[in-house]
Amino acid sequence: METPGLDSALAALRYWRTKHEVVSHNLANVSSPGFKGHLIFAELRPGEQPAARQALDREQGTLSETGGPLDLVIEGPGFFVVDTPAGERLTRRGSFELDENGILVDPGGHPVMGDGGVIAIPPEGEIVINDAGEITVDDELVDRLRVEQPEADDPEVTSEGASLLRVSASLQPVGPESRGIKQGFLEESNVDAVGGLTDLISIQRHFAAAQRAVETLDRVAGTIANDLARTNG
Question: Within the chain, which residues score under 70 in pLDDT?
């Protein structure tokens, strides 16, 4: 038997539970360099209950200077591309290093991709990376970093761990003139810790209220069903 309001209460419960998961994940990565938080909102469709939808927060985090030749940030749109066993992924965590074979890799050991594929850096020489992402060693061009971004309306941009993003749609290259890559800097997480904690308190209150509503309506449905059974009997 359907109880008026129960579907709405259950939808609210699912929404606040999902929002709690998203905000908690954001806060857990408030200190992760290059981490991009997710925003969550209620999507309304005709004839359906409101559903939770996520969107990537593309706002840039604070830049911190390190002086490391392989520490990179993108001042503007776009992400670095890395190759993982599960396929290519995007990242703003530019704390790169060289593996034992001289391959440029991210902190997880995934190769960083350039226009020519995997980037191999000569063992000696001064490494310079310009605004366009061109890598030179002693003035000799090695490769140019791939910088790409998901389509603006792609809803399936999901986090994998603290630094990688998986995208369902095709990627769009960011032109060299729009990259603004800075060498010797790292980007901090763009998560607002204070705002996130405030949101978490509010979410917990709303979740508890929705949970009480579901329990109350469920009891009402049970009472009505029992009364109908006795009447029909």
Answer: 1-4, 47-48, 152-155, 218, 220-233
What are the structure tokens assigned to 216, written together?
């109350």
Asked if 53 contacts 209 with a C-beta cutoff of 8 angstroms, the reply is: no
Angle, nearest 10°, between helix axes 6-28 and 193-232? Answer: 160
* Res 99: pLDDT: 96
Instruction: Report the length, in residues, of the chain.
Output: 233
Q: Which two tokens stand for residue 74?
A: 């993108």
Q: Locate the DSSP E strands across 38-156.
A: 38-43, 51-56, 63-65, 72-74, 79-84, 87-91, 97-98, 104-105, 113-114, 117-118, 127-129, 134-137, 140-144, 147-150
> Which pair of structure tokens corresponds to residue 183?
């060498």
Handedness of CA 27, 30, 35, 39 (dihedral sign): positive
217 within 8 A of 11, measured Cβ to Cβ: no
Cα dihedral sign for 101, 122, 88, 185? positive
d(CA 74, CA 183): 9
Q: Which residues is 189 bridged to in the sheet?
A: none
Q: Provide the token pair at 122.
A: 């000569």
Is residue 142 within 8 A of residue 156, CB to CB? The reply is no
Q: Which of 24, 5, 12 is nearest to 52 (CA)?
A: 12
